[in-house]
Specification:
The chain has six helices and 15 strands. It is mainly beta. The chain has a single domain, classed as Calycin beta-barrel core domain (Lipocalin), CATH 2.40.128. The strands form two sheets. The protein has a ten-stranded antiparallel barrel. The chain has a two-stranded antiparallel ribbon with strand order 10-11. A hairpin with a 2-residue loop joins strand 14 and strand 15. The radius of gyration is 20 Å and the shape is globular.
């Protein structure tokens, strides 16, 4: 294992690193910032409750550390030639912005996969382990580098009745629960604390957490953005299984709040420094949705954050 500097000392070059890591090139280093977390979780606590869930809202503080894997990662081929992958390992730490209590800890990998017979274009893959007893593999469904700032489309955090299918991340026209017993917290709970941008409307932000992301970059001049969208539900090369569901849970999770799908979009942004001429800083934004199934409902668990890379 090594960092980007180690690779340069070993004889690497900017051009070769760009080919090897692709849009992951700017990630190695430490990122820190703030965000917002929304999760509906079971509320039984040993007795029957109504409603059967608790809506938890947190303003968050987050650190995300990436380290480049020094060298090739060979995947040996039987049907096709060996393919060389390249990537990073990361550690994500999320805490409550007000009291400092831990919310989330996640070690994982990002991998850049070149074109293969199974996927005729390059792909980006995220592998993660979550302490609740979940592990996942998510593959890119879209990626692009573009001039200017990101287009952050809205999402919908309202619960979805089963057996309706899980909609795409940015689909805001799908059926949602209309029972006021379930919707009351989404419509009436206040946003947490002082860590979020000023001026957010609680009910609007709870339904669409990407309101936080747009507020966090208001007034910025963003020169360039790399976009990577990923999902754990992706096409399979096997004719017997048209899609891959890339999440595995321990039995307790499967039985009580089954984690069924994760979708996310990451924006890696080059931002003009507001006070120093001809300088910029790197910024990372993301929206992530995890679907938890319990009580006959798909419950979207949303996390968003805006992080700045340490110089």
């Amino acid at each position: 294992m090594g960092n980007i500097d180690d690779i340069f000392r070993a004889g690497g070059s900017t051009a070769s690193l760009s080919i090897d890591l692709g849009l992951l090139l700017d990630l190695p280093g430490r990122w820190e910032g703030k965000g917002f977390n929304l999760i509906a979780r079971p509320a039984r606590q040993g007795v029957a409750t109504n409603p059967t869930f608790f809506l938890e809202l947190n303003a968050t503080h987050e650190t995300l550390e990436f380290t480049a894997i020094g060298g090739d990662i060979p995947n040996r081929g039987e049907i096709e030639p060996t393919v060389l992958l390249h990537g990073l390992h990361y550690l994500q730490s999320v805490s409550d912005c007000e009291d400092g209590s831990g919310i989330h800890k996640e070690p994982g990998l990002w991998v850049h996969v070149p074109p293969t017979a199974a996927n005729t274009s390059e792909t980006y893959v995220r592998q993660a382990s979550i302490p609740h007893g979940d592990s996942l593999v998510a593959q890119s469904s879209f990626f692009k580098s573009l001039a200017g700032g990101p287009v952050i489309d809205p999402v919908d955090a309202f619960p979805i009745p089963i057996p309706n299918p899980i909609p795409p991340l940015n689909d805001v026209t799908h059926p949602v629960i209309t029972d006021p017993t379930y919707l009351q917290p989404y419509l009436n709970d206040p946003l947490p604390g002082e860590c979020l941008p000023k001026g957010l409307v609680a009910a609007k932000t709870i339904r669409d957490p990407t309101e936080v992301l747009r507020a966090q970059i208001k007034g910025q001049t963003i020169q360039q953005t790399s976009v990577i969208a990923i999902t754990t539900s992706f096409p399979s090369p096997l004719t017997t299984s048209p899609t891959v569901q890339g999440i595995v849970n321990i039995p307790f999770v499967t039985r009580n709040a089954n984690t069924t799908q994760m979708d996310a979009i990451f924006w890696i942004e080059k931002v003009t420094h507001p006070k120093i001429a001809n300088r910029h800083f790197m910024q990372l934004q993301y929206v992530q949705r995890v679907i938890l199934d319990f009580a006959g409902i798909h419950w979207p668990h949303f996390s968003v954050a805006t992080l700045i890379k340490a110089s």
